[in-house]
Amino acid sequence: MFSSLPFELSRKIASLLSLEEQKNLRLTSKEFSVLATPLVFQTVSLRLNDDHHYHRCMSLLKALSSPSYLSQNIETLCIYGSFEPPRGKCRFWSKITNGRRRAIRLIEKRLLEAIPSLASLKSLYFSGFRTGELRPDSVNAIILALSNLPLLSLLNVGFYSFRPSYSEFHDLDNITFTVGQDVLRAVPSLVARSPNLTRLRLTNYRRVSAIPTAAIFSDIHKGKVSCVEHLDLGGAFILLTHDVPIIVPHLRHLTSLTIHITDIAEEFWSALRIEMIHLRDISVDFLNDGVLEYLESYSGVRSMLLIIWGQEVNNGSLRFWHNILPKHADTLVDLCVRPEYAGGWCLDNRSLASIRQCTRLQILRVTVDQETLGLDDESNIITRTLEVFHEWRCLIHLGFISISMRNISPLLPSDSEFDPIQSLVAAFRCINPTDGALRLEVAVDNAAYRLSRQNFDLGVYSFKEIHR
């Protein structure tokens, strides 16, 4: 029956299958191979640092060295390199050490031979190579060959210390530079040559002196502005007061901002508020009055990640739970609040009451500290939250993040509080949960749980740990 359908309809149905199912379909018959092959090879990953994939990847590169039906189907290419052995790969490392130079030269040769055949390539992820592996002249040749691909619109590169030229790239929609690259040398001109750029992600962790954020847009001609909609900055960047009037005109189309940088002027948030640049997705790791005033000035945030470092000032948490969160309650689907210290930003009765107004939540991650945990109370904050999770009908992930009483990062689990929270989740019971509740995953730091029927009582459910 499937084979009798029109080709376009069959292709649409096949596109809904999982990758494994598409692979199996491809092996069924010649007709299905024609149908499934373009789908299977839309995205290709070359993991050159994995002994399970290395030889297969090299064979694939060899097959791509001339134009073929296979190469014409590849729209996304991911190249992961580095011969520094990942954890558990030392055996593979010892095998290739003697032939390392020859293996590297073969990688260079096959990459250069394969790239010109990738006429349909739209997205490139290229990262992991270190100095002493690919030769600098080979890297430049590879980058130049990639820049000549006519449909390439997404460039994601993460070399550790190479400094290739990107001068031939242009008209990109999506740019990502990570891991200690020469951002100032490459990015400003690349941004200027990409007038339709909508997504820009820059991470700079290896530079001695911080980079002024305004420099990113410094090569755009006077009178023209960027149309970037999604901006993600991390690491050694600074946004000082005198740079605010320079950068804000380039952010008039901004809807998503992730900014975890060295220093950011409070005036930046005032400028966003005055210019009525209303973000739908925001992620910040430093809260001050400017951020709070900005978030209080409008409604409509969809995703909010707040990491709070340093002691609370001006009752910021009270202002957030009482005034700010309710303004976004009708649109918020992803909320994460992660303070580094105990106090008002942690989950308690006040914050839970505000969060319950956010009825469209799909992801909720909150921090719990010893003071508000209430272990001696039968209705502790963990149990109270679990008792009302059915009110969030769309919720698929509920995360409890423990905080250390020693003021360490909330990213790390606390030995003193990890077990009590875990025990409270495991002790929770409910009767006849909804289908949505059965899909919910509850996480406690590094452990995850899902509702499961009790063996001794078919009507009672409890949370059981998921072993992945």
UniProtKB/TrEMBL annotation:
Domain F-box: 1-44
Pfam families to which the protein is assigned, alphabetical: F-box
InterPro entries, per the entry: F-box-like_dom_sf (IPR036047), F-box_dom (IPR001810), LRR_dom_sf (IPR032675)
Coiled coil: none
Superkingdom of this protein's organism: Eukaryota
Protein name: F-box domain-containing protein
Species of origin: Armillaria luteobubalina
